[in-house]
Write a structure and sequence with these properties.
Layout lengths: L1 H12 L20 H10 L2 E4 L4 H18 L4 E2 L8 E5 L10 E5 L4 E5 L2 H16 L8 E4 L5 E5 L29 H12 L4 E3 L12 H14 L5 E6 L3 H4 L11 H17 L5 E4 L16 H12 L5 E5 L14 H6 L10 E6 L23 E6 L15 H9 L11 H5 L10 E5 L15 H12 L5 H13 L3 H22 L31 H4 L5 E2 L16 H7 L10 H4 L2 E2 L10 H24 L7 H33 L14 H12 L2
Helix pairs in contact: 3-4, 8-9, 11-14, 13-14, 14-15, 15-19, 19-20
The structure holds 4-O-methyl-beta-D-glucopyranuronic acid (GCW).
Length: 696
């Protein structure tokens, strides 16, 4: 007994309660600064709530959790609004957005008000965030409204429990227990999403099994929709375009066939009868072997419009993905989506959104923007980012994606003159889109800490915050996340934030310097395989993209090459078209640059590439050193977890560096510049490593 008490006392004094990461950024450990804590405690001493729906219950329960955790108090519930220190109110506010809220505070009272209960919930999370990040609650006069309507996660989860490109365990959805049992994790998932403004979730993989829309599964989906509703989250499903054949026994899934149309209409009726606020269907059609309208000689427009018609009576949406690329021996995969969709601009029904990946290829480490942003004037396009780190080192490499999102969102499409940034395209400002959306392909799984790598939680957080306001900086978001997640001293917070902000560029340097792309392992997409020269399709090889030869490296997309650059507005095009002025980070995306070509810093392409590979690895060593200073400053479980993952990251960074340099050197025939030393490993040895990683 004495031993246990001593152990507990020492844990408390060293603050070393093991933190398994389950609580995410909603940690709510006691605020150490007493003055601040007392001040907050006064402000949250009593609460009055003027609404009483399901959302009211979860809002009050969130306040209870936050006040007992952060402040060590239990707020009194008062029916007398005048006496309450915190008033939560549904009422008319100036901003008509149903999700907007206002927070106003005077000396004795803080009022959170919104047109809807959901807006109040968002306001409460904002207030809690302010306490978690030690901000003042005095004289607040805040109005906040989301700039994007649909802020969503897309789960690539399959009904057998696996996740496509999921690196944090198995799927969270226990289909076999549903609809009877609602796992408490579903509720914590919904809370976490609501805390960052996420209001929609697509439960299943876009490579969709038709099973999800069978009556059996729809019952399960309804149970999840009911569990998420109080948190303001709508449920969507990915569908299999061939469902009328697979489930309905029809001879065809041709979108113009009357029986097929009828089948989808009654399916939509069935779904909405069960789930009246169902969000809609997401469709990956005629892409990577998935069925679609082109199987019947029809177009993406025919397919999308048929489904849109079926779902329109219920106010449902069709989210049609633009990730399509048929192999064309003369073409350039970069140009495929634009070629397919631009011609139909204006011909899609109004309840359709075209969901576009941030770049033209496929979630590479760094991509220029998809030319569809800024090109679709009459059809809403939405942003698809990938949180799960398919090409970003899975769950062993620490990559904070905030700076990548920010780089994409700040890119100027010039569609309607200077300042037509991607952020402004997708939030509807540039073309006045009636529907707006941003989604992240989820990085969550059944791992206790949700995301495998503890630091990857920040990517989920960043998606929600940027979807609420695509003009927020990645720095501000990192600052919030670190403070909320670690509740550590300010020096430690700064160290963690610094590593985060540098992490993406570091990863880029040791894997994809100067804009070389699609050089990862084939199929599993892990580790380096720039030597992949044969694959089931040429555009699945690495050679198709890097085109290394005795002269140089990179894909010429200028007028002299594939001319895909021509898909951008001339003012954006000119940023990339001159090999002498292009930002080096994008060089090999657009130019076949001679190895000896001199960059603006005076170095040759070869020397600069090698420098980046080597400096990238050195930076991982630096990350390790900086992280080492966190020992004792944050809880030991997270510390050790990240420390171990950084060791793996270092090992794999060396693998990337050596494999890439040795492989490309076969073409450049140039030496590794000093002070760097050529690897003592051979290329053959490094190629052999791939098999080890295949079985991961
Ligand atoms: O990046 C590729 C992935 C596929 C994925 C596809 C897509 C769901 O390798 O696994 O399939 O993109 O986005 O549809």
């Amino acid at each position: 007994m004495r031993f246990i008490i001593l152990l507990l006392l020492s844990m408390i004094s060293y603050g070393s309660f093991a933190d398994d990461g389950y609580r995410l950024w909603l940690k709510y450990d006691r605020i150490q600064n007493e003055t601040l804590r007392k001040n907050y405690a006064q402000k949250l001493a009593s609460v009055s709530v003027n609404f009483s729906d399901e959302t009211a219950k979860v809002t009050v329960s969130e306040i209870e959790k936050a006040t007992s955790g952060l402040l060590g108090i239990k707020s009194k519930t008062l029916s007398n609004t005048a006496q309450a220190t915190l008033v939560l109110k549904v009422g008319k506010i100036e901003n008509e957005n149903p999700e907007a809220f206002e927070i106003k505070s005077s000396k004795n009272q803080t009022v959170i008000i919104s047109n809807t209960s959901k807006g109040v919930l968002y306001g409460v999370f904002e207030l809690i965030r302010r306490m978690q990040t030690s901000e003042s609650l005095e004289n607040l006069k805040i109005t906040s409204a989301p700039k994007i309507q649909l802020r969503m996660l897309n789960h690539w989860d399959n009904n057998n429990g696996t996740i496509e490109r999921g690196y944090a365990g198995m799927s969270m959805w226990k289909w076999y227990e549903l609809p009877e049992r609602i796992d408490s994790r579903y509720i914590d998932y919904a809370r976490a999403n609501a805390s960052i403004g996420i209001n929609g979730t697509v439960l299943n993989n876009v490579n969709a099994s038709a099973r999800f829309i069978t009556p059996e599964y729809l019952g399960k989906v309804k149970a999840l929709a009911d569990a998420f509703r109080p948190y303001g989250i709508k449920v969507f499903l990915s569908i299999n375009f061939a469902s009328p054949k697979i489930l309905g026994g029809l001879k065809t899934a041709d979108p113009l066939d009357p029986e097929v149309k009828h089948w989808w209409k009654s399916k939509a009726d069935e779904v909405y009868k069960l789930i009246p606020d169902f969000g809609g269907f997401v469709v990956k059609a005629n892409s990577e072997g998935e069925p679609g309208p082109m199987d019947f000689g029809r177009t993406h427009k025919d397919g999308a419009n048929m489904l849109a018609e079926a779902i329109a009576p219920h106010n449902g949406l069709i989210i049609w993905r633009a990730f399509v690329y048929n192999f064309d021996p003369k073409g350039d995969r970069f140009a495929a989506a634009y070629n397919e969709f631009k011609r139909f601009d204006g011909e899609f029904l109004p309840n359709i959104i075209i969901q576009v990946k941030n770049g033209p290829i496929d979630f590479q480490v760094r991509e220029p923007i998809s030319p569809l942003f800024g090109a679709m004037e009459k059809t809403p396009v939405s942003m698809e980012f990938q949180l799960t780190q398919e090409y970003l080192g899975w769950a062993t490499h620490w990559v904070y994606e905030g700076p990548m999102f920010e780089e994409v969102l700040k890119t100027d499409t010039h569609a309607k003159g200077k300042g037509s940034t991607v952020a402004k395209v997708i939030d509807g400002e540039v073309f006045k889109y009636p529907i707006t959306s941003m989604i992240g392909v989820a990085n969550t799984g059944s791992d206790r800490n949700w995301t495998g790598h503890p630091m990857a939680q920040a990517n989920w957080y960043a998606l929600g915050r940027m979807a609420w306001n695509p003009e927020l900086t990645s720095e501000k978001i990192a600052d919030e996340w670190v403070k909320m997640t670690f509740q550590s001293d300010s020096k430690s917070s700064e160290t963690i934030k610094k590593i985060m902000l540098e992490s993406r560029e570091i990863y880029t340097n040791y894997t994809n310097p100067l804009g070389v792309h699609h050089v990862m392992g084939e199929g599993h997409h892990f580790g380096p395989e720039p030597w992949v020269e044969k694959a089931p399709r040429p555009d699945w090889t690495a050679l198709y993209y890097h085109r290394a030869d005795s002269i140089g490296i990179g894909f010429d997309r200028t007028e002299k090459g594939s001319n895909s650059l021509g898909q951008y507005h001339p003012d954006l095009r000119s940023k990339y078209s001159d090999i002498n002025t292009i930002q080096p980070e994008f060089l090999l995306w657009f130019h076949h640059a001679p190895w000896t070509h001199k960059l603006q810093n005076g170095k040759t392409v070869w020397d600069e590439m090698v420098t980046r590979y080597y400096e990238g690895v050195k930076s991982v060593e630096k990350m390790q050193k900086e992280w080492a200073t966190m020992e004792g400053k944050i809880d030991s479980e997270t510390f050790e977890n990240v420390e171990a993952r950084l060791k793996t990251q270092y090992k794999e960074a060396l693998w990337w560096r050596d494999a890439s340099v040795l492989y490309f050197q076969k073409y450049s025939k140039m030496p590794v510049p000093s002070p760097y030393q050529k690897s003592t490993r051979t290329l053959e040895e490094l190629k052999g490593l791939v098999d080890v990683y295949h079985v991961r």
